[in-house]
């Protein structure tokens, strides 16, 4: 399935995600991320967002992340 959508946006940065969902041998209907393009026409500075010290991942989320890596 493909579509062309014309946008009136002035944002010229390129962002898209390419995903797939296999029709065979995929009993849990898993979706696979094949490509992530996240190009910006400006500098991204992660230090712009300051988090409070008490904000952190829960132990459950950390366990999930460790399981996935």
In short:
By secondary structure, the chain is α+β, with helices and mostly antiparallel strands. The protein contains 1 helix and 2 strands.
Report on this structure:
The protein has 69 residues and is an alpha+beta fold. The protein has one domain. The longest helix is centred in the C-terminal third of the chain and has 10 residues, at 59-68. The protein is flat. Strands 1-2 form a two-stranded antiparallel ribbon. Helices cover 14% and strands 19% of the residues.
Q: Based on Cα principal axes, name the global outline.
A: flat
CA(first)-CA(last) distance: 32 Å
> Main sheet, how many strands, which sense, barrel?
2 strands, antiparallel
The helix/strand class is: alpha+beta
Query: How many beta-strand elements?
Result: 2
In DSSP terms (H or I, runs of 4 or more residues), the helix count works out at 1
Alpha-carbon Rg, integer: 18 Å
The quaternary organization reads as: single chain
Q: Assign a percent range to the helix content.
A: 10-25%
Strand order of the biggest β-sheet: 1-2
Low-confidence stretches: 1-5
Number of structural units classed as domains: 1
Question: How much of the polypeptide forms β-strand, as a percent range?
Answer: 15-25%
What is the H/E order?
EEH
Protein name: 6384_t:CDS:1
């Amino acid at each position: 399935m493909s579509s062309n959508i014309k946008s009136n946006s002035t944002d010229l940065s390129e962002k898209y995600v390419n995903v797939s969902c296999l029709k065979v041998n995929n009993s849990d209907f898993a979706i696979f991320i094949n490509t992530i393009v996240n190009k910006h026409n400006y500098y991204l500075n992660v230090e712009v967002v300051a988090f409070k010290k008490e904000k952190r991942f829960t132990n459950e989320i950390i366990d999930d992340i460790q399981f996935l890596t």
